[in-house]
Design a protein that fits this description.
The chain is of the alpha+beta class. The protein has helices at about 40-45, 70-90, 90-95, 100-125, 135-150, 210-220, 230-245, 285-295, 300-305, and strands at about 30-35, 50, 60, 65, 155-160, 165-170, 180-185, 190-195, 200-205, 250-255, 265-270. Strand 10 and strand 11 (about 265-270) form a beta hairpin. The radius of gyration is 20 Å and the shape is globular. The protein binds zinc ion.
């Protein structure tokens, strides 16, 4: 009998190291899983590498773990990892062939693993994080809604007529690019992106596909075309900035399952339709994000905004056609 009972750690802010992150079952000290899966760490030699969390603490990839009970691991997470690992070995085509829901849940688990670490660190009075996520009501609502989606890792859940996220799958051309693995996350906008070899996944994890709609025209021009990393960085900047402009937080409601159902159905609602979905696009603010994404090429905001009405683009030429950039080596 499949359990259709949802778990919500935000209910009582339970983020201990002794309960499963996905179902709340008590765990022993050895019941942990890496946030970045073992196969990924091996492929990209991450086992000795470090990453920095929001509170500026440094941790190695193998040390970044979350508590997970054996049932959740064996029955739900490991099968997903196997699927994603197999897709990974097929490159971009592999990821495109995967069910978008699987990619979403896989990315969400990593994002959430990092988030939980932030929340657990917040309980540590010695560490003063820049953004106290647990005390920000808007963030709290977002994380709780996001967690409800994350339950689909464990409970069979059908999203009724909606996609919870916006997922972009890009292909990096074989150029002067030397960075095999990168990731970026932003808790306030629920953005996550990851580069694995020649595949880049960019995802807003809680927008009901609104960014996808807003950026579809641009995405159509680059979809299935290998891009230079500087072009990937530009598209990434557009997505991250658009996520920053997004005004709404979706809500999710489970429809009561009938006794014979072996799955739950979620409906969604976007509250407060009086507000614009996106705040207006401002080139000066966008240029700031783009400057950050183009940091390794050392292109400054001033250069980007040479024409303030039309920020610099590496994606398109003067005629609006997609550029073919063969070489543009990073400066740093
Ligand atoms: Zn569990």
């Amino acid at each position: 009998m499949i359990s259709l009972t949802l778990y919500d750690p935000f209910d009582r802010m339970q983020f201990g190291s002794d309960i499963c992150f996905l179902c709340g079952t008590p765990t022993s000290a050895t019941d942990t899983i890496p946030v970045f899966p073992g196969w990924l760490q091996q492929r990209y030699n991450l086992t000795n590498k470090q990453l920095q969390l929001l509170d500026k603490s440094i941790i190695t990839y193998p040390d970044l773990t979350i508590p997970c009970c054996p049932v959740c691991w064996e029955q739900h997470l490991q099968p997903l990892e196997d699927k994603v690992e197999a897709a990974h070995d097929q490159g971009v085509a592999g990821f495109k062939a995967l069910d978008e829901k699987d990619v979403f849940l896989w990315l969400s688990k990593i994002f959430y693993g990092i988030l939980v670490r932030e929340l657990m660190n917040e309980k540590n009075p010695l560490i003063m994080p820049e953004h106290a996520v647990g005390e920000n009501p808007k963030m709290f609502i977002k994380f709780q809604a996001f967690y409800k989606l994350l339950q689909a890792l464990r409970v069979p859940i059908v999203f009724d007529d909606f996609t919870p996220c916006s997922l972009f799958v890009l292909e990096v051309a074989e150029t002067d690019d030397t960075v095999p693995f990168e990731y970026r996350d932003e808790l306030t906008t629920m953005m996550f992106s990851i580069k694995m070899g020649r595949v880049v996944l960019i995802c807003c994890l809680l927008d009901n596909g609104l960014l996808q709609q807003a950026l579809q025209r641009v995405y159509d021009t680059i979809n299935d075309k290998p891009l230079h990393p500087i072009q990937v960085a530009e598209f990434t900047a557009r997505v991250y900035y658009a996520a920053y402009l997004l005004n709404i937080i979706p809500e999710y409601f489970e429809r009561k399952a009938s006794p014979s159902d072996d799955f739950l159905t979620y409906d969604t609602l976007i509250d407060d339709i009086t507000m614009d979905i996106f705040n207006p696009w401002e080139n000066s603010a966008y240029a700031k994000v783009l400057e950050e994404m183009w940091k390794k090429w050392q292109i400054t905001r001033e250069q980007i905004l040479k024409n303030p009405q039309e920020p610099m683009t590496m994606l398109y030429d003067e005629t609006g056609a997609l550029r073919n950039i063969v070489s543009f080596p990073p400066v740093i």
